[in-house]
Amino acid sequence: MKAPALLFLIPLLSAGADLPVTLFDDLVEVAPGHARSLAIPARQGAARLACSFRVLRGPEARLVLIPAESVDAWIEGRAYEELAATPYGRVGSLAHLPRSPRELVLVVQARNGSSRATRLRLLARFLDPAVPFPPSPRPAERWRGAVLVWSSLAVFALAAIAGAARLQRLFASRR
Fold first, then answer.
1. pTM score over 0.85
2. What is the CATH number of domain 18-127?
3. CB 18: neighbour CB atoms within 10 A?
């Protein structure tokens, strides 16, 4: 009876193994008032694109997600299609669920007004669309924390008692 149940679970486990896929996880430097772009191939099936950043040094930054067809309009300063964006800040994240497979461009813009380049940590991934983004926080379970603290205290107390008993035996044998 166990073998058919395991055979049923194998396709379910292997289907979820494709996601999440990390596209970019690196440090990025952007000059003040300038932008860097990153091409994102969104040719997968149903997958949510999730991007987050944290500024390590320099002025604030923001992320803008645009389709590849709108890059020329964005460069020339004309109106362009914006799929998702974050406000300027020290940290931020965005998520987009593409309706159809197409090329996307993630633009990292640094705020102008500083002489230092913005250095930030950028993470771009494809996630399972069934999982909410950002993940809903779970409140801490007070009783689990108490059990963890008291059990670790008991383990260390037992180790101390065992060490003290061994030392006592050693000192008693030397007399």
1. no
2. 2.60.120.510
3. 12
Element (H, E) at 39: strand 35-42
HEC string for 64-115: EEEEHHHHHHHHHCCCCCCCEECCCECEEEEEECCCCCEEEEEEEEECCCCC
List per-residue pLDDT tens for the chain, 175 residues long. 444 444 343 444 444 446 678 888 899 999 888 888 888 877 666 788 888 999 999 889 999 999 888 888 888 888 888 888 999 999 998 988 887 778 888 899 898 877 888 999 999 888 887 777 666 667 778 899 899 999 999 999 999 999 999 999 999 998 7
Q: Alpha carbon 43 to chain centroid distance?
A: 21
Q: Taking a C-beta distance cutoff of 8 angstroms, is the pair 49, 65 a contact?
A: yes
In the block, tokens 């002025």 appear at 59
Asked if 113 and 82 count as a contact pair (C-beta separation under 8 A), the reply is no
Cα-Cα-Cα-Cα dihedral sign, residues 92, 96, 101, 107: negative
Domain boundaries, the chain: 18-127, 143-175
